[in-house]
Amino acid sequence: MPDTPVRRQDGAATRVSGPPDSAVGERGAGRRARAAGARGIKPESRTALVRRARRINRELAGLYPYAHPELDFDNAFQLLVATVLSAQTTDLRVNRTTPALFAKYPTPEDLAAAVPEELEEMIRPTGFFRAKARSLLGLARVLRDDFGGEVPGRLEDLVTLPGVGRKTANVVLGNAFGVPGITVDTHFGRLVRRWRWTDEEDPEKVERAVADLFPKAEWTMLSHRVIFHGRRVCHARRPACGACAIAPLCPSYGEGETDPEKARKLLKYEMGGGAGQRLRPPADFPGRAASPPAPREGG
Ligand code: SF4
């Protein structure tokens, strides 16, 4: 296929250009075309970009048919709380924290009435626990007072809750309400820039640019697949290019380890033979469940 990168004999990929003119506007497109020209990168048409992006999505779907949210939750309220807690920490750490939290505060009303110091102590392992406790108390009170104790199923309502931005709102909408949404977290942003789907840095602009490449029905699963790949293979530092199924479609091949043997050792979670992040993974997850936290000494 002419619009995908072609692997050279030396293992490097020929590069394709950044996002299409229509997605980014005249000024951005001109800037990128000049920059691409200066780097000897072949421009990629809008049609070619859409085709390549969708092909990457299909490859990822084959690679991660079990892709799922990596936070344990049973309902929209739990997912909302877990997503707020997941800022600046791993989903695994959140999953080890939330069972006790949800047992003590099963509803927004219970959480709204929590003693701040007790709540802080329970969520301390997730970091930034004072700010997160403030957000949780604030959002629980708004849910109780303004939304009848229910998590609203609309983006415009969710983003009015303390500590809830578009990313959190899209996670909740996509996974608790079945409303398609693109979740731009640090992994998603990094990977779509490596794939040159966009060169935007601002999460909202990334969301718009990627939304433009895919039908709405794909948005939620695409988000899971891209984040799965970022966590397992295409790491921020030392991506495992030599063990990456997306390599033939990736203009950034070679940014990480290309030796297959060494690259395989960089794979994480179930791809590297380890456990996943969820204590209660879905039935089709091929790896092991994460282990619960060790009991505290004396506890
Ligand atoms: S691991 Fe390497 S080849 Fe694979 S998507 Fe990331 S940068 Fe591209």
UniProtKB/TrEMBL annotation:
Top-level EC class: lyase
A Pfam cross-reference name: HhH-GPD
Listed name of the protein: Endonuclease III
Requisite cofactors: [4Fe-4S] cluster
Taxonomy, superkingdom: Bacteria
Ranges for domain HhH-GPD: 85-232
Record: residues binding [4Fe-4S] cluster: C234, C241, C244, C250
Start and end residues of each stretch annotated as Disordered: 1-42, 270-299
EC assignment: 4.2.99.18
Keywords for the protein's UniProt record, in alphabetical order: 4Fe-4S, DNA damage, DNA repair, DNA-binding, Glycosidase, Hydrolase, Iron, Iron-sulfur, Lyase, Metal-binding
Cross-referenced HAMAP family: Nth (MF_00942)
